[in-house]
What we know:
Largest sheet: 7 strands, mixed
Mean pLDDT: 96
Number of helices: 8
Protein name: 3',5'-cyclic-nucleotide phosphodiesterase
GO molecular function: 3',5'-cyclic-AMP phosphodiesterase activity; 3',5'-cyclic-GMP phosphodiesterase activity
Domain Metallo-beta-lactamase: 17-188
Number of domains: 1
CATH topology: Metallo-beta-lactamase, Chain A
Structural class: alpha/beta
Organism: Zeimonas arvi
InterPro entries: Metallo-B-lactamas, Pdiesterase2, RibonucZ/Hydroxyglut_hydro
Number of strands: 14
Strand content: 25-35%
Strand order of the largest sheet: 6-5-4-3-2-1-14
Amino acid sequence: MKVxxxxxxxxxxxxxxxxxxxxDSDILLDAGTGVEDLTVEELAAxxxxxxxxxxxxxxxxxxxxxxxxxxxxxxxxxxxxxxETIEALRTHIFNWVIWPDFTEIPHYDRPWMKFAPLSIDQTxxxxxxxxxxxxATHTVPALAFHVHSRNGSFVFSGDTGPNDEFWRQVxxxxxxxxxxxxxxFANRDQDLATTARHLYPIQLGEELAKxxxxxxxxxxxxxxxxxxxxxxxxxxxxxxxxxxxxxxxxVLEV
Length: 254
């Protein structure tokens, strides 16, 4: 299983791209601005999109993705998400005001996109890989994901603040190779981070102390304007795991 980092930033600018990971060629975890770097052929190969939550930096490329390649595909793109996320997309994006509803185009019986509701701790089998939804804590209903193949697993936290249930689930993953976890704000902005339910470096260290496995810890979702400060503070506060900041364009082999 190969995981291509299309975007891992908390914002845009200076070639930064927001959150999106391509698993092999057919599974997309979140649909941030990183999707725009794929070719039309690569876009058309995506069969499943798993969304952590409804915020714009994680879903903004989805409408354009479906619009760009829907006519090239024989089956609809399946969007897996919490019911609350699906309702947000129906109400605010695919509403015929902001964008057409591709669950109705070109016909109800032959849509370019379909929704598949997820609940926490639900597993979806996609070929030889499985995607399990984990608990996350954010300002809107949100998920993390555990992706498993025959050779190992990785976990992607999505956007989350402290969450003991998340760590209980992560510690149950025996073959965990990578933990991709967000740290959006610098320590000086910890009040904002707490309100927005994101992590900051001191809190990241506190959360990683709950980890009982030994994966490589990769940090995502840094605000571009504060990236250097956050990187220095992660190094100082993150503890024994020596996390490193994930880079756009990396390919992780699991």
